[in-house]
Structures are given as structure tokens and as C-alpha cells.
Amino acid sequence: MSTSPLNPRIVVRKPEEQQQIDRETQNLALYYHENCVHCIRVLRVIERLHLKIDFRNIREVPAYRDQLVEHGGSSTVPCLQVRKEDGDLEWLYESHRIIDYLEERFV
Ligand SMILES: N[C@@H](CCC(=O)N[C@@H](CS)C(=O)NCC(=O)O)C(=O)O
Predict the structure, then answer these.
(1) Domain range list for the chain
(2) DSSP strands (E only) in the chain
């Protein structure tokens, strides 16, 4: 992993590294909506780190909101769903916690 010469905050990876990261991010989904400033902060980090994460807009798809409330325990966004190796789902709330998680795991 390196960073862009034009913008040291933008992560650049070799193709094989990116493929490995893409495999890992198949287990992540972000519940969000577009008018949420906290969501936008998380989305910017996802973009900067070049992560392919499943985006689930709870205003466009009511079923996503239902999943979030039923399994996550709250309708608050952003929320990152993490599918662990044993198949269990973890629901990570709070934008700063989500950002810390992504930066620790993918930088
Ligand atoms: N401290 C939280 C704030 C999240 C928050 O306030 N989200 C709002 C949208 S911007 C929300 O989902 N409100 C509706 C609800 O909590 O059900 C964070 O940083 O993630």
C-alpha cells in the first residue's frame, strides 16, 4: 500500500493487494442515508481508502431500515454491519468508531 503523490491521504494499492482488500470488504455493509452528515464522513473515508462496501440506503429501501432496527437494535445511521468468519453479524454504530475500525483494518 502507498499513497497518491498528489494527495497523501488517498490510498493506492497494487492490483493484487486491492483484490485481497476487495475480498475482505465483501463482509461489510454500510447502512446510511444521503442527508446524514455523519454518514457522509464515513463515506468519504471509504472513498479515500478505495473500499468496495455494500451501501444500504435506509430511506430508499425500507427493508434495510427494518433489518437495521431488528438486528442492529437502533435505526441510527451510519451503521457498519460486519460479517465475521463464523457468520455472526456485528453491528457497529457511531461514525468515529466506524472510521477508526476502517482505518485500523485497511490502512
Ligand atoms: N453520534 C452519531 C450520530 C448519528 C446520528 O445522529 N444519525 C442520525 C442521522 S444524521 C440518525 O440516524 N437519526 C435517526 C435515528 O437515530 O433514528 C454518529 O456520529 O454516528
Answers:
(1) 11-106
(2) 2-3, 11-12, 28-32, 54-57, 79-83, 89-93
Distance 11 CA to ligand 1 centre (A): 28
Q: Which atom of ligand 1 is nearest to the CA of 96?
A: 19
Report the separation in Å between the CA atom of 47 and the middle of ligand 1, taken as the mean of its atom positions.
Answer: 20
Index of the ligand 1 atom closest to the CA of residue 75: 17
Q: 0.85 exceeded by the pTM?
A: yes
Section 95-100 average pLDDT: 98
Per residue in 35-68, pLDDT (tens digit) is 999 999 999 999 999 999 999 999 999 999 999 9
Residue 43, C-alpha cell as written in the block: 463515506
**May I ask the CATH class of domain 11-106?**
alpha beta
- For 81, the enclosing helix (H) or strand (E) is strand 79-83
Q: Terminus-to-terminus CA distance in the chain, angstroms?
A: 8
